[in-house]
Design goal:
Elements lengths: L6 H12 L11 H10 L5 E3 L5 E5 L3 E9 L6 E7 L5 E6 L11 E5 L5 E8 L20 E5 L6 H6 L7 E4 L4 E2 L4 E4 L2 H19 L6 E7 L16 E7 L2 E2 L11 E6 L7 H13 L4 E5 L6 H7 L5 E6 L1 E2 L6 E4 H16 L2
Parallel strand pairs: 3-12, 3-13, 13-17, 14-18, 15-16
Antiparallel strand pairs: 1-2, 2-12, 4-5, 4-9, 5-8, 6-7, 6-9, 7-8, 10-11, 11-19, 15-17
Helix pairs in contact: 1-4, 4-7, 5-7
Length: 346
């Protein structure tokens, strides 16, 4: 039987965090938000030296410690160089698909705390001017940011305080339709973070404890492969909550929860994955088991780093990953239900 999940909270939580910029390695604005959200349920947030945020939940049984990870970092960019005419050139943070960024609004975050918006455009920006406006490949060598400021030189841009290495975040453009579709950038992986907090809300409101001591972890380096490489002492299981994929080879869709049996590097733990499948069935989840290509999570990153633990992964499948993504509230509901079934060990 399914748990009654507060779907309004799920969406409100997602909206609250998706609009806070957190490209890979940029935690300055997000961590205070996580602290505020955790405090609503009487929880404290702690940090490691990588600024990964943790919430500790005491379990009924102290014989083992498990970790549930939902990465807070998103794909983004940094300023690579500044052209003589004042346009910014970018270097990607994570698997940026530049063809999906054209025409988007971005924000540049300077080292001294200033913010400036800009437009992402191809250097051959107009079909009325450039013969190759339609055909030029969109990549980091052909895409620029045109600042929403009256600047026409590198010197004028520098006077704004913008320098090489400043972080660049993308407007998520979040929408939630009346029939339950969530359309936004960064469903990967902020929808998973929302699912974790919806699980926490259910536990607190129903005066429930996890079966085992549980760490909720929110890393900032998953999109470049090292979010889960450090694991606190004593953790024996790392369950990564991350997006699922939708495509010809997959049974995952926008309404179910996808359990990943293998990613690009390795299979996930046999026993733990089998347990997740059993939990999904007991909780009445609509679920799929899939093998993902060009994909990885903090769970297997933790294993590759030499940690002595089991890993597994599941989450909400999305269309158009690393672009303007889409899924359905049913998928977030199924993901949260599987989370609860796992932590309660039903």
């Amino acid at each position: 039987m399914k748990f009654p999940i507060d779907e309004k909270y799920l969406i409100d939580c997602f909206r609250a965090i998706v609009n806070v910029p957190s490209p890979v390695g940029y935690y300055a604005q997000m961590n205070p938000v996580l602290e505020k959200m955790a405090a609503e349920f009487g929880c404290e947030v702690t940090y490691d030296h990588k600024s990964t945020a943790y919430i500790h939940l005491e379990g009924e049984d102290h014989s083992k410690k498990v970790l549930i990870g939902a990465h807070v970092d998103t794909i983004g960019c940094v300023v690579r160089t500044i052209d003589k005419n004042g346009w910014l050139r970018l270097r990607n943070l994570g698997g940026v698909n530049y063809s999906t960024l054209e025409g988007e609004t971005v924000t540049i975050h300077t080292r001294d705390g200033r913010e400036y918006t800009g437009l992402v455009a191809c250097q051959s920006h107009s079909v009325h001017v450039f013969d190759d406006a339609r055909t030029l490949e969109r990549n980091e060598n052909t895409m620029v940011v045109m600042l929403d400021e009256k600047v026409s030189s590198k010197e004028e841009v520098n006077q704004l305080g913008i320098r090489h290495g400043d972080f660049v975040s993308v407007d998520p453009r979040c929408q939630f339709t009346k029939n339950g579709y969530l359309k936004s950038r960064f469903i990967d992986d902020k929808a998973a973070v929302a699912c974790v907090f919806a699980m926490l809300k259910y536990l607190k409101e129903n005066n429930l404890k996890p079966k085992f001591d549980t760490l909720l972890a929110f890393p900032y380096g998953e999109e470049i492969g090292f979010g889960g490489t450090y694991v606190p002492e004593g953790v024996s299981e790392y369950v990564a909550i991350d997006i699922g994929l939708i495509g010809p080879d997959y049974d995952g869709n926008e309404y179910n929860v996808a359990i990943c049996a293998k990613d690009a590097s390795a299979p996930y733990d046999w026993d733990l994955t089998n347990r997740l499948i059993a939990y999904a069935e007991k909780a009445g989840c609509d679920y799929a088991v899939d093998v993902f290509y060009r994909y990885g999570t903090d769970g297997n990153a933790a294993v590759r780093a030499g940690n002595n633990l089991r890993s597994a992964a599941f989450g909400m499948p999305v269309l158009c990953s690393h672009g303007m993504e889409r899924t359905h509230i049913s998928s977030l509901n199924n993901t949260t239900n599987l989370l609860l079934a796992y932590v309660l060990d039903i």
